[in-house]
Amino acid sequence: MNPTYTIDLSLKPTIFDLWHVCLAGTVVLLSLILIVLLLAMVISLARSKSKQAEQAIQKAAQTPEPAVKIVEKIVEVEKLVHAPAPEPVILKESTPDAALQLLGLLQKEARFIDFIKEDIANYSDADIGVAARVVHEGCNKALNEHFTLAPIRSEQEGGKITLPQGFDASTVRLTGNIVGSAPFSGTLIHKGWQVTSIRLPKSTQGHNANIIAPAEVEL
Q: What's the rounded Cα separation, in Å, for the pair 108 and 142?
């Protein structure tokens, strides 16, 4: 029969030979090495943080912001905070007298209101054309006598033009596909009109401008 060996782990060695001495020395040596490594890591981290702090201080010292600039920035912020509110846009009201006077001139020279208010459904195209010619001649006469007109653009209609940056938007109306910002290139559809002088007749005191054309009574 094979003998059975049992190991009692509770037993303590009674002989302290060379092998145990080497084993104990190895454990002590490894413990010392581990302690040294931990101390080296701690010292390295401390030095790194100290170096970063010194670099930050040096950088701040090299590029300091003058106190004058700081004060100027504070003043600018205060101006923005306490800046007055923008003034409200005041719409200019147009007096109706000049418009009524022009309407009276068109009625006087071209029977303009009579033509516009007339029901032309029962008239032929030929009759309407004759009346339109009379109205056209009278309106042209009234405009030429009391207004001087000039085209806004001098280019030929149908030609290509370029609007530079900062062009007067009140004199040009953009149509079509409007993308981006000026300069714009496009086709001149209409040259536009502007009034360069006005010569409306003066009204007498007490004149009622609402009376475009007085009623006519034949005796």
A: 9
176: left (phi over 0), alpha (psi -120 to 50) or beta: left
Secondary structure (H, E, C), the chain? CCCCCCCCCCCCCCCCCHHHHHHHHHHHHHHHHHHHHHHHHHHHHHHHHHHHHHHHHHHHHHCCCCHHHHHHHHHHHHHHHCCCCCCCCCCCCCCHHHHHHHHHHHHHHHCHHHHHHCCCCCCCHHHHHHHHHHHHHHHHHHHHHHEEEEECCCCCCCCEEEECCCCCCCCCCCCCCCCCCCCEEEECCCCCEEEEEECCCCCCCCCCCCCCCCCCCCC
Bin 166: left if φ > 0, else alpha if -120 < ψ < 50, else beta: left
**pLDDT tens figures, 27-53:** 777 778 888 888 888 888 878 777 776
pLDDT at 82 over 70: no
What pLDDT does 44 receive?
Answer: 80
Domain ranges of the chain: 21-61, 96-168+182-198
**Nearest alpha carbon to residue 135 among 103, 105, 106, 104:** 106
Tokens standing for residue 40: 């080296």
